[in-house]
């Protein structure tokens, strides 16, 4: 898989100083990944049978990231959500902001779906959710995270019924053509035109139609590290995105139960 082509806003917008008291907790997985102990952030009601894997954006851990997945975990009755800390240091160095060559070189080593063993990490997180009673799974990411989510939903060894997320980055027609499950794309105002990707999905005639909504009033990254939800406009858009993801998840799960 070629390196992701991130938009400028991925690389030149620093994280905000948001504050959020996490509702969930970190958990070391029982299954090691490439011989190492790895940690996920777990949140949501343990009685839910629906598991969501979250893929953070390129900034890694950030309070708004936790807030986003905490709120998703309690939407529409609740889901069990697991967000792996894909980057071992949890965040990327500030030196990468506005330094695209350095960022891309770092991602090639630390953010490759297979070469960085992210696929193994995702599978270990799925098994952890299964141990807590989850029976069906979707995967949603933010920014770079959607690039990883689309690779995961296209991977035959994965159990995901859907993929997508807000302010997607690095998506291509080549990547979407490999997807056999419905997707949800929620771009921000600077993000690429994703309607051609939705046309590709429409031709697949899946049980559930893929979903697209552009948030014209908020910037790229508003649900993740670059989000500031003390801004009412960003908070309203984030709540709307969370509702759309929860509703889409329920629709996909219901369609597969009825099949």
From TrEMBL:
This is Dienelactone hydrolase domain-containing protein. One of its GO terms (molecular function) is hydrolase activity. It comes from Dissophora globulifera. PANTHER family: DIENELACTONE HYDROLASE DOMAIN-CONTAINING PROTEIN-RELATED, DIENELACTONE HYDROLASE FAMILY PROTEIN (AFU_ORTHOLOGUE AFUA_6G01940). It holds the Pfam family DLH. Residues 41-248 form the Dienelactone hydrolase domain.
């Amino acid at each position: 898989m070629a390196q992701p082509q991130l938009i400028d806003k991925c690389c030149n917008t620093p994280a905000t100083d948001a504050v959020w008291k996490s509702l969930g907790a970190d958990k070391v997985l029982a299954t090691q990944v490439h011989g190492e102990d790895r940690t996920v952030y777990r949140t949501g009601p343990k009685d839910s049978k629906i598991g969501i894997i979250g893929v953070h954006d390129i900034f890694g851990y950030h309070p708004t990231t936790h807030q986003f997945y905490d709120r998703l975990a309690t939407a529409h009755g609740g889901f069990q959500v697991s967000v792996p800390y894909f980057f071992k240091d949890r965040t990327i160095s500030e030196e990468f902001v506005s330094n695209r060559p350095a960022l891309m070189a770092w991602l090639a080593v630390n953010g490759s779906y297979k070469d960085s063993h992210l696929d193994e990490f995702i599978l270990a997180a799925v098994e952890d959710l299964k141990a807590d009673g989850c029976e069906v799974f979707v995967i949603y990411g933010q920014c770079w995270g959607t690039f990883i989510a689309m690779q995961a939903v296209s991977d035959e060894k994965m159990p995901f019924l859907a993929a997508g997320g807000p302010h997607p980055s690095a998506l291509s027609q080549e990547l979407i053509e490999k997807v056999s499950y419905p997707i949800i794309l929620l771009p921000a105002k600077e993000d690429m035109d994703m309607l051609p990707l939705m046309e590709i999905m429409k031709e697949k005639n899946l049980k559930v139609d893929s979903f697209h909504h552009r948030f014209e009033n908020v910037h790229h990254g508003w649900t993740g590290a670059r989000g500031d939800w003390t801004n009412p406009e960003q908070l309203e858009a984030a709540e709307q995105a969370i509702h759309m993801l929860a509703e889409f998840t329920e629709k996909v799960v219901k369609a597969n139960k009825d099949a």
